[in-house]
Amino acid sequence: MITTELEQLRAEALASLEQAETLDALREWRVTYLGRRGRLTQVLRQLGTIPPEERPRVGAVANRIKDELEAAYEAREAVLKEAALAVTLAAERVDVTLPGRPVDLGGYHPTTLVLREITSAFAELGFQVVEGPEVEWDYYNFEALNIPRDHPARDMWNSFWLTPGGTEAERPMLLRTHTSPMQIRVMEKFRPPIRVVVPGRCYRYEATDATHESMFYQFEGLAVDEGLTFADLKGTLYAFARMLFGPERRVRFRCDYFPFVEPGCDMSIDCSHCGGQGCRVCGGSGWIEIMGAGMVHPQVLRNVGLDPDRYQGFAFGGGPERVAMLKYGIEDIRHFYANDLRFLRQFRW
Ligand code: DAH
Q1: Index of the ligand 1 atom closest to the CA of residue 222
Q2: CB-based pocket (< 6 A), ligand 1
Q3: At 226, which CATH number?
Q4: Which end of the chain is more exposed for a tag (fewer CB within 10 A), N or C?
């Protein structure tokens, strides 16, 4: 009898369902009993062999059992899924009361901080920020700046030549010793009125001490226009000094010599480390020189094809590390690039 067979299948299926402990086993159970080639289908195939008037009754029994097995399957699946979830939750339990792992924040280097302040101060005065190459031609670093080959003025800059040995004519490239070559590059590219400020790395083949490094930064400034005078230079640098150091800081200009300016000067600020008393940072003088400056030499203007009778310019160049030393009271420039985190972490923001 088919109905007996169906009842047996029902009992067997329900018993076997109880044994299914995992979702995989459960899926297998479904294929075995309810699948297209499963046990229930096999039994129902025999429906054709029984008398037609019996078929509705047997069919109804079969449907009831099928529904019952489906429902049992779903109930068992829900139980197993919940159990699996409970296992995962237990294994991946997070203790939200644990203290978090500290996030190590990076910070800006003091040179970067100060260079940003410097460039934005000059930007406020109408200067545009430009940058240039660190590997430079002799022509831009010296020649065009009115520092000819074999001229004693070259002794002011001890250079890292890129092609060692030989005569000067045979070593045309070097690591720039200052940002001044950008004066020439800018004047070759733009016509007056020009107002630029150039931050960048420079290199000198020198012994280091508390105020000298062989790699350091500079910021260069250049203004070229008709009718510029030394008063424009002083006014600009006074305004800059007030913006960076506050109105109470004292500023001093003295005559100085640089081959690419005439007249030339340097600008110092009273040493914030000792308050002007004299210390190791200021070399005992109470002043720290932060910039060289002057009126662009007529020969330099001629070198870029500008007529010095029509155009005048002023230029300045300074060391941001020295500015940072003044602002933050740092006593030795060698701290800057020694990569000591105890030093660098003081300047996070
Ligand atoms: N380039 C000079 C140096 O490195 C600094 C300097 C002096 C730049 C006078 C200037 C200037 O633009 O006018 O020593």
Answers
A1: 12
A2: 178, 180, 220, 258, 261, 264, 292-294, 315-317
A3: 3.30.930.10
A4: C
